[in-house]
Amino acid sequence: MDTRSTPSLDTHPKMLKNVKGLMLGRVIILTLLLTITLLFQVSKKQFFFIPLTNNLYYFIGIFYLVTIVYALLLTRIGDPYRFAFFQIVIDHFFITGLIYFTGGKGSFFPVTYIFSIIASSTIFYKRGALLSASLSSLLYGLLLLLQLHEWINPLGASSIYDASQIFYSLITYMAAFYIVAFLSGAISEELKKKKKELLQKQVDYNQLEAFNQNIIQSLDSGLLTIDLNGNINFMNRTAERILSRDGESLSDTSIYDLFPKISKVVEQLKRKVPESSSDYQRYETLLTNHDRRKIYLGFSISPLTDPEGSLIGHTLIFQDITKFKEMEEQMKRVDKMAAVGALAAGMAHEIRNPLASLSGSIQMLKSELTLDDSQQHLMEITLRESERLNALITDFLLFAQPPQSHKILYPIGRVLEETLDLLIRSPSFRDGIQVLRPTRQEEIRVRIDPDQMKQVFWNLFINAAQSMSDGGKIQVHLSKGDALGGTNLSLSSQVREKAWVRITITDSGNGIAPEEKEKIFEPFFTTKESGTGLGLSIVHKIIENHEGLIKVDSELGRGSTFTVFLPAE
Length: 569
Fold this sequence. Notes:
Blueprint: H1 12-42, H2 54-73, H3 80-101, H4 113-148, H5 163-218, E1 222-227, E2 232-235, H6 237-243, H7 255-258, H8 262-271, E3 283-288, E4 294-305, E5 311-320, H9 322-368, H10 373-400, E6 408-411, H11 412-424, E7 433-436, E8 445-448, H12 450-466, E9 472-481, H13 493-496, E10 500-507, H14 514-517, H15 535-545, E11 549-554, E12 560-567
Parallel strand pairs: 7-9
Antiparallel strand pairs: 1-2, 1-5, 3-4, 4-5, 6-8, 9-10, 10-12, 11-12
Helix pairs in contact: 1-2, 1-3, 2-3, 3-4, 4-5, 9-10, 11-12, 12-15
């Protein structure tokens, strides 16, 4: 029997498993034979279909002993194929011995050769089955030939057999051996082929599953699946990052706890007509993630079905659109500023001239007429309101048509120092306000219009001082470098890689409410009783003309931080 006819798909551990199965099958057959023999022995019968002699028990005992030796040698054998081949050959000789001890030609045990043939086909496939059938025919034929010539006498008594009987018995069993060999070999080969195909399909399936998994995990959109009850079954890495949660911690968590407003969308989807289910719809929602940060999510939801087409849940695909919403709000603010600016430019010139004439006329009447106290008070109110109106128009013009910038390389720290000196001497500066000036000593030069940047810092300092009615602290910080690296501003990578000068103004005042923070740069929006609402709009306009950026972080009751970014040289 050729031990090298084993298929390449059989690995060493697999062959060891087959050898163990061969040994286990041998023990089971021997145990059944011994049990039946003992039962008949106890029932005081002489035999059931084999003579009950001590030789039979010796044979079974030796076979048990050999199997134990096989088990002890199993872990020390380097080549399991040769070991299996050796066992099967020894099995043939033991079966021949069993036939001899149970009557030779009259024995019922030539059929046990079939077990060895099947075992050979299982391990060595078709070629092994045919070689096993041939060895079985050879040994059985040799036993019959020796018994025919009375060279051996299995039962100890002389028996005369006709040559035709011996020949008939041999031909019958040989036919059975080869029929079993062909059938078991064909089945083994077919199983081998199917096993190979199954293994290949398993490899293809694993590759396809890994490929699909990589695609899902590599999506730049969050993806999660929910069952019909809304419980989350799966989410990819992007979904975990957006939600700041681990997928395992959200397993079997209801989607309605994460997205409180999504229940209406799911119910709407369930009521949708099947023909219109392919229509793509996108929704938006505001979500507070695990880090207590509010983010805007844009999402779409679609049915999830099994291979039979039955609805088993829904698939949710979403993106963090917070930056896009910020850009949208910024664009709306720019458009609104442009519209208001155009209106301001037209109206300011038309109002300013009549206002100047009106103010001059009132001043002349005040100086030439004799007025009582009430009339004098009314004149002063009129003049004061006309000056206020003139200041408002001036701010209008500054916002709508900023003067031509004369940019020069100028130390930005000097502008901050001069503006802080003005702040300290102004009426808005109260006792109890502490100013922490920039600690950076070296000169940082920026291409700016110094007067316009003073206007920017003046407005920011005044707002900070006025927000601290009971005193507080204003801290100014100046730095240079890749200042946008750690910010959440919606900018392209090319803009982020530029070098920036960063000016941070932090106060410990009242702070800004979230609903007000989005409007502070809009014209005419103010929370002050006497404010025009144009100060921060002018700040935004000047910084924009300097190709800079401004960012605000604030929490109600805990102060505000305004950060100005200017392009560094």
